Amino acid sequence: MQIDIDSLLNLPQVKVTDFSFTDKEVLIELVRTPPSQNCPLCQQPSTTIRSYTSRKVRDLDILGRKTLLTLQSRQFECPDCHRFFIEDVGFVEGNRGLTQRYEAYLYKMSLDTTIQQVSLKEDICWATVNRIHEQYSQEQLNAGEDGWALVEILSMDEIAVRKGKRNFACVLRDAQRNTVLDFLEKRDMATLKAYFVQRGAALCQQIKVVVSDMWDGYVNLVGEKGVFPNAINVIDRFHFVQHLSTALDHQRRLARKELSQDDRLKNLRWPLLKSPEKLTAEESLQLQTAFSACPVLASIYTLRAKLKALFDTDYSQKAGLLALTSWEAEASRVDSKPLTRFLVTVKNWKEKVSHFFTDRLTNAGMEGTNNHIRGIIRRGFGYRDFESLRLRVLTECGSIP
User: Fold this and answer.
1) What is the pLDDT of residue 1?
2) How big is the chain by its Cα radius of gyration, in Å?
3) Burial of residue 49, with CB atoms counted within 10 A of its CB: 0-12 exposed, 13-18 middle, 19 or more buried
4) CA 216, 217, 223, 224 torsion: positive or negative?
5) Taking residues 39-57, what's their average pLDDT?
6) Which of 10, 123, 160, 281 is deepest in the core (most CB within 10 A)?
7) Res. 383: pLDDT tops 80
8) Confidence of residue 165 (pLDDT cuts 50, 70, 90)
9) Where are the domains of the chain?
10) CB 230 within 8 Å of CB 207
11) pLDDT of 235 above 50
12) How far is 384 from 108, CA to CA, in rounded Å?
């Protein structure tokens, strides 16, 4: 069976004149078939060829072999403006050494992996693969639909770009469509306010709900004095309960310090912080023994279970607020400094937390997004500049097709 190399290549307006192959490479020689080329300045066709230039361009692999095209480019002279120009071959951008379809293939390969891995696998320098990834990501970002157009429920959270350095970036996410809208280098109030002001009043007015933790930079964006005049702020229930878990752990440490010789309070941290349904029989017995040694620890543990059950109950916003107030009164009767500090948090934030009961909105989906972003950061062993990281996050977690 004779193979038609021209059909196999499927490249426009070229003809194969020769080809050869080795164990590692396929070499194909091509010539251009159009007899004329339009002048890029005056658009007049020209048939006057002044010189030929040979160039090598890499294409998609054939049968696992690196494929190199030797292309004979022609220099034309325009009969009208007498301009000399090199013909546009169509399937290679400018004077690059890769076909457009091979660049698109490299871009797809670079998703969900590192630039270095693609570079090593394809035997192409890192800078070239990185340039292709950034160019194609930006082009798709610019060409895509405006992800903000239909956003009404905005989810906001922070993530540390470098662990331990307290350089928190801000993740902006559409809670209804589960996509990252943007990834900002800073999360401070001034940065966030300037960002949304720049996006325009129409967008700010269409936001109905902002789901966040208790960071002032997020909370102060909502209301008449913020940039979202029509929105309510829903404090994430999981962050709220996490503060009580922290108080529970602080009480454990106090008890361990006061009763340092009591073995019943040793190795208690993880069983104490676990959900009751996930405890083993041995861990349940360990907790019962510890609670007999420190009843206040048992009281806070029970209060945490009640608070979780409260959020799992189908209350209205008003009924939920009353239930939180009732829980607050019960908790105030427990003599515990860590719990007392948490009750200050309850007093300051319970109304915003109670907004959860209106539509039962949380930032749970954001945790999955943040884990994905952490994976991107680990996979890349860090990034030289934030914009590269931002493009990567929007490519993998956003709405870029």
Assistant:
1) 42
2) 31
3) middle
4) positive
5) 88
6) 160
7) no
8) low
9) 1-97, 99-143, 153-235+363-397, 237-359
10) yes
11) yes
12) 21
How confident is the model over 278-337, as pLDDT tens digits? 999 999 999 999 999 999 999 999 999 999 999 999 999 999 999 999 999 999 999 999
What the block records as the tokens of 384 is 């030289």
259-296 residues labelled b (16+ CB within 10 A) or e (exposed): eeeeebbeebeebbeeeeeeeeeebeebbeebbeebeb
Instruction: Round to whole Å and give the CA distance between 9 and 5.
Output: 6
Please give the backbone phi and psi of residue 223, each rounded to the nearest 5 degrees, phi first: 105, 180
Farthest-apart Cα atoms in the chain, separation: 100
Share of the chain above pLDDT 90, in %: 57
Architecture in CATH of 153-235+363-397: 2-Layer Sandwich (3.30)
> Is 401 a residue whose pLDDT tops 80?
no
- pLDDT score of 328: 96
Cα separation, 68 vs 112, whole angstroms:
27
Dump pLDDT digits (tens) for 111-147.
Answer: 878 889 999 999 999 999 999 999 998 888 887 667 8
